Amino acid sequence: xxxxxxxxxxxxxxxxxxxxxxVEIRDYNILEKIVQSCSKLDDSDKYYxxxxxxxxxxxxxxxxxxxxxxxxxxxxxxxxxxMNGCSIHAxxxxxxxxxxxxxxxxxxxEEVRKWIFDHYRxxxxxxxxAEKRQKESHDESLFGHLPHKVWAIP
Length: 154
Known about the structure:
Elements: H1 7-18, H2 28-39, H3 49-62, H4 69-83, E1 86-88, H5 92-103, H6 109-118, E2 120-122, H7 127-136
Antiparallel strand pairs: 1-2
Helix pairs in contact: 1-4, 2-3, 3-4, 3-6
């Protein structure tokens, strides 16, 4: 089963990054298109690199938000990978360099997907499963003190 972020969750990440309850959305339709594109992917991409590429590439190239598009794109991409049991294994400087290349139009979405594929790691279980196990044991939530699914970022 694939886990993907909703439009409201993408907006929530941007709100968190802006440090405000208000968010300025330049184009809501772009956010809907991103989520729809991700939901249409079949399960043949078991490491979810295509979904991560859609999120990263689309937010960076189409700028749905007025502020913090780069940060939102990186956070949403990493969260999506982690929710699905994977992560991107790259340094902050590598991630930022890749983001800049996307923003400048130097990479296609397929090239972004390949870069993510070349830098992913699979985890034994997803963050969602970890939270479920924690709830089943009736302990305090592992991630409850962090806002709006930001717990998914390493």
